[in-house]
Design goal:
The complex is a heterodimer of chains A (about 110) and B (about 450). Chain A is mainly alpha-helical. Chain A is built from 4 helices and 2 strands. In chain A, helix 1 runs parallel beside helix 4. Chains A and B meet through helix 1, helix 2, helix 3 and helix 4 of A and helix 1, strand 1, helix 11 and helix 12 of B.
Chain lengths: ~110, ~450
């Protein structure tokens, strides 16, 4: 796959993930994983030998970075909220863990 | 959609939507202990792409709605009416039960002492102190009947006063429901909070009286009382009037000029009306019958005897006009009360004869009350037993209905209440799902960095 095509796929996958994160629906977020995994693999192994317009590629890369930053911000909010609200969290086995130090505020990430 | 500007617009929509989601979670958690709060959920919808080459324009919030179960709410209101009714009855009856007192120290004790005094007189028929004792015990017995009759009237008056207070509350709540209907009809952002507030007001209304709540298609509710008399119609409320009515002076409840007192059978007001107009009058009738029969039996024997001077006997108790009011007006005949020599103990007129004193003393064991089926003590025991049974039945009903209300509340909380665990699980699910995706971010970022070096 050519690099420009791979970028389009990555951006589409990230847009889907952002949409799922926005929806506040865990099932939609989980469903986005397969698309992200495939797009990331295709992007890292894309054919960089194909001629491309450097300005267009630079712009696409910047926008892709912005998309990742957006997804990270959206994803991080839930953990901040949970840390602020609940005195305990759950371990990997589902058992409740006591949280020692609670943040008093939710960090702004947007 | 493509381009940085479009991405930012999409992000803006997304952040607004997510903020709504977070606000709902926060609202649910903040109100976990708020009475009447129903859990909110957000309905999202995808904004479709502007063209075939973009993923979409993000997301929008369609609505924030409350999880309500109208059937459970309706059932709950009906059962709460029942609990409030039974509670009022139990409170009213407890009052009466307290007035009746413990066996042996109430009217029954005075009846026993009265017969004992006649036995004492029969043993020493010429004794002036024994005659005085009969008169004194007669007065004490009459006073016991008078006191109990007064306590029953007092209990009715207490119920009547409580009805007046409850009607005031009912009118205030009806006005509040109408006002909330008006606000709900106008729409706006705080609609669900207004509906919660209205539900709380409706629950309180149901506690007070047997009201029917009718859900309208426009989201407003109408409330009727009794046999369909309007209490709230949309944004208008109609006052339930409570005014004293002859001959009792007790409050009569009317709606639009129509007397609906007997139509209100549910809720606290229904329970209080039942105590005031049905239960206590029943006890009063029993007590009056007992006093009337007792005085009649004693007088009938007394009139056949002769007093200490050899003159024919008159009434021992003052003649009663009828059964109604007998307990309240029972008294020893004024002449006998003033002069114990007028007690007719003799059956023949001879100075030492004790025939009538013995006959009256023997009434203790004679089944001459309640249509010849019970002794005086037995008739009293039946009366006291009936009150105790009524209290016990009302308590049992109250407990059963209380259990049903608890069960329905639990059911409602499952549907509408806030579960901390559910909210926590939702957050955890969200985080884990995000982390599953975030694993690929580093691969993408590394590739971007590599490619960036090629174009810089």
């Amino acid at each position: 796959m050519t690099t420009p095509d791979a970028i389009i796929r990555v951006r589409a996958a990230l847009e889907t993930l952002a949409g799922a994160l926005e929806s506040w629906r865990p099932d939609d977020v989980l469903a986005a994983e397969a698309q992200i995994a495939t797009a990331a693999r295709a992007f890292s192994t894309s054919d960089t030998g194909t001629p491309f317009d450097p300005d267009v590629l630079r712009r696409d890369l910047i926008e892709t970075r912005a998309l990742i930053a957006r997804c990270r911000s959206l994803g991080a909010v839930a953990s901040d909220v949970e840390a602020a609200i609940f005195p305990a969290s759950y371990g990997a086995t589902g058992a409740r863990l006591r949280r020692v130090d609670l943040p008093s505020t939710v960090a702004a990430r947007t | 959609m493509s381009g940085l500007f479009a991405s930012l617009t999409s992000a803006s929509n997304a952040l607004n939507a997510q903020r709504a989601g977070l606000e709902v979670v926060g609202q649910n958690l903040a109100n976990v202990n708020t009475v009447g709060y129903t859990r909110r959920v957000v309905d999202f919808a995808e904004l479709p792409p502007a063209d075939a080459f973009s993923a979409g324009r993000g997301v929008e919030v369609l609505q924030i709605r409350s999880l309500r179960d109208l059937y459970i709410e309706g059932r709950l209101r009906r059962e709460q009416q029942g609990v409030a009714h039974d509670t009022a009855v139990v409170q009213g009856l407890s009052d009466v039960e307290g007035a009746i007192g413990v066996p042996g120290s109430s009217v029954d004790g005075k009846i026993d002492s009265f017969f004992t005094a006649f036995s004492t007189l029969a043993n020493d028929v010429t004794s002036a102190p024994a005659r005085d004792g009969v008169v004194a015990q007669g007065k004490a017995l009459a006073q016991a009947f008078n006191d109990l009759a007064a306590r029953l009237v007092e209990s009715q008056q207490n119920a009547d006063t409580a009805i007046g207070g409850a009607v005031d509350q009912l009118n205030q709540l009806a006005a509040k429901v109408a006002q909330l209907n008006d606000q709900i009809g106008a729409g706006g952002p705080g609609l669900e909070a207004l509906r919660d507030e209205r539900d709380v007001a409706l629950a309180k209304l149901s506690d007070l009286a047997g009201v029917d709540v009718i859900q309208r298609p426009d989201g407003l509710v109408d409330v009727t009382i009794g046999q369909g008399h309007a209490l709230v119609i949309g944004a208008s409320s109609f006052t339930l009037d409570a005014s004293p009515a002859a001959p009792s002076g007790f409050l009569r409840l009317s709606s639009g000029g129509a007397d609906i007192t007997s139509q209100i059978t549910g809720g606290r007001i229904g329970g209080l009306l039942s105590v005031r107009d049905s239960v206590i009058p029943g006890y009063q009738a029993n007590l009056d019958q007992l006093a009337f029969d007792f005085a009649g039996q004693v007088n009938a024997l007394h009139q056949t005897g002769f007093d200490a001077t050899g003159a024919p006997g008159g009434n021992f108790f003052a003649p009663l006009a009828g059964v109604a009011g007998a307990a309240a007006s029972l008294s020893v005949d004024p002449n006998v009360a003033a002069n114990s020599a007028l007690v007719a103990a003799s059956g023949t007129g001879a100075a030492g004869d004790n025939g009538i004193a013995r006959a009256i003393a023997s009434l203790r064991d004679a089944k001459v009350m309640a249509g010849g089926t019970a002794t005086a003590a037995g008739a009293w025991a039946q009366f006291a037993y009936k009150v105790g049974l009524d209290v016990s039945t009302a308590q049992s009903s109250m407990q059963t209905r209380g259990s049903i209300v608890q069960q329905l509340q639990q059911l409602r909380d499952q549907a509408s209440g806030v579960s901390m665990d559910e909210e926590a699980a939702h957050l955890m699910q969200f985080q884990r799902a995000y982390e599953a995706n975030a694993r690929y971010f580093s691969t993408i970022v590394q590739t971007i960095d590599t490619l960036m070096k090629m174009v810089e």
